[in-house]
Amino acid sequence: MIVFTAISGAKNEDPLCYLVEIDDEVRIMLDCGWNDAFNVEDLKNLRRVAKQVDALLLSHPDLQHLGAYPYAYGHFGLSCPVYATLPVLNMGRMCLYDVFQSKINESDFDTFDLNTVDTAFDQITTLKYSQPCSLGKYKSITITAYAAGHTIGGTIWKIKKDAEEIVYAVDYNHKKERHLDGTVLHKDGVVLDALSRPTLMITDTYNSLISHPARKHRDAALFETIKTTLQDNGSVLLPTDSSARVLELAYLLDQHWTYNQFTYPLIFLSYQSYNTIQYAKSMLEWMSDAINRQFDEKRENPFEFRYLRLCTRYKELAKYPEPKVVIASNVSLESGYARDLFLEWGTSPENAVILTDRGPPYSLARELYYEWVNKSEEDNTNSPVKPAIALDLIKSLEIRKKVPLEGQELIDYKNEQRKKNEREAAQAALIAKSLSIIEEDESDRSESELGDNDIEELLATQFDLYVRDATKLGGFFKQTQSYLMFPYIEKRKRYDEYGEIIQADQFRNKGIEGLGHVIDGESGDRMEDDNIDDSDKADQSTADSNVPTKYVYYDENIHFQCQLRYIDLEGTNDGRSLKTIVPQVQPRKLIVVHASPEATHDFASSCLALQSMTRDIYTPDVGELLNVSEAINFYQVKLTDSLVSSLRLSKLEDYDISFVSGKIHLPPDSSFPILDVMPIEEYAASDNPVFVGEIKLTELKRVLQLEGIIAEFKGEGVLVCNEKVAIRKTPTGQLTLEGSLSDDYFKIRSIIYGQHAIL
């Protein structure tokens, strides 16, 4: 039995979170997304089920897929095993780091902190692609990750229990990109065998109503807009995420700069820009074959950028002359450096903003996208990508800043700090006095009663000329005392089975501990950047961190007049691709999620119009309980040893199958019926042979070619062999063999028989 519940992201474009219950035994959560508004009320459905979840599978390293996981872990008791690929773990952590730092630099953000993020992500179990893994204590259930494209480490999940298979495929991309290969779900026009004909497929149709221009047209439009703006002495802002799609954009632009030898500054501005690129350098094996070939042949890491500069602080932009191109987070334009730059640059007609993503619903980025769509429709040219528009928008926005204290506020703050320091000093003095009294009371203890650690603590807290030594008895009434001349006790060396125990702290060179690391004054977190002199950064950050600050909020009407253009670089399938791939997967049942009501209806209608597509297509609402179980009856019987020994088993994939004829009887001392050998007088002749198994024409073509037969597709669903024999597959899955009786005919028939189990 399979029961599906949409926690979030059904018939809308909200973050993705779904619950699948299998046989009343295990509850598996698929993704756990949130948006950068971080409204806790959005998680009310998640709160109700979090403690009942037995496993969580994460598919992509962005807020839409894992943003709520740390909060649910810390506040809702979501303590189940969590599974993801290594890039999803690393880049997802960087994503949450970046958005957290964006939030605390504009408001008193306390929804979660970095310690919660680290603790939650430390619980994740990492898997490799195509690596089956038993689901914790539920040994009968296996999960397997497959490459989804779209983001580094992006995953299509396959859940298998006995004969039931569930495929969860959202935000996948079948097209190759510069740093990623396409999904294995539909590679080179062929559906992967392991993912075909699942019992249930859960997929998104976010782009069902969208048609993408060819990639070369989109790239040309991007380069043309950037070049025109720079030549007109304007700067370009490209809002993007902080750790996923930014890799494709950064690699694309750095290559373009290298090819054209541009001198304009190209900058990636993010709180975690350095760490994100460092992770990318270390995870090339998760990227495209082209990336790995380049590294193998030239021994050059593609993410050792020649022109792209990494900045982690807004003030660092002042070092680079205008005009310049800046890739900045966050994609929604609701927070982060991208919002700050848009507020500064968006008022100038010379500057340009290029949206590479439509942004989340109700965000500033989505509003700008609609503004571009409405105005670009007036263009009558036949250009594959609609042109830029001159934005003319007056909008009231809430300005959120962290500013240094000044004037009377600064004086009051310093007075309060001084009083606080005095109180702490008085309390410390009181504690020290109490400790000294206690030490005097205990000073009669002998040295023999003190261990090495006690002596060291004593020497660290007292500064007498000598330390009282042990009392030595000299007779019945006579005793002598001796004192150490110098207050030093040599520490005894300790040994284990490997020799003397070394204290690593004693050998650490403290002078180089902080090399390459600085403390960011704006966020209070450690940052790394190899583009700025360490001493300058350290001085500046120290000064910033000592300046008291406050948060200010106010509304302001801003007149935006910049150039605006949307160029799709989201890296997901468009509507035409979705409507081609899903029918080829041939799921027995299909659930459509994460799309607007219009896109959901459009995709479901297009699937139902196909004769070969299943009729069981579901479009659930959020919170709706959907039973998608197969109508199958299972019976359990015990086989006698004599019956088992008489069976002729045939191997089919992971199963041994056989045709069984027997007689069932129920013994009085057992609740299980027993199947025994049929008496010879009751035995009847067996039926015609039964062919068990399903073979795909593409796989059959490969097998035939290995046997030296020329096999080519001619027409739809027809495989022609040696120009003499034709193999067709009917809509019901049956194979028909047509041709004249010849050696080729019988050889091909034998090969087809060999691909089935014959009972």
Automatic annotation (TrEMBL):
The record's GO CC annotations read: mRNA cleavage and polyadenylation specificity factor complex
Q: Which GO terms describe its molecular function?
A: RNA binding
Give any Pfam family that matches.
RMMBL
A Gene Ontology annotation in the biological process aspect, one of them, is: mRNA 3'-end processing by stem-loop binding and cleavage
* Domain Beta-Casp stretches: 246-368
Map out region (Disordered) in residue numbers: 518-544
Establish whether keyword RNA-binding is in the entry.
Answer: yes
| The organism's place on the tree of life at top rank | Eukaryota
Nucleus: is it a keyword of this entry? yes
The subcellular location is: Nucleus
InterPro entries per the UniProt record, alphabetical: Beta_Casp, CPSF2, Cpsf2_C, CPSF2_MBL, Metallo-B-lactamas, RibonucZ/Hydroxyglut_hydro, RMMBL
Q: Which UniProt keywords apply?
A: mRNA processing, Nucleus, RNA-binding
Q: Which family does it belong to?
A: Belongs to the metallo-beta-lactamase superfamily. RNA-metabolizing metallo-beta-lactamase-like family. CPSF2/YSH1 subfamily.
Q: What is this protein called?
A: Cleavage and polyadenylation specificity factor subunit 2
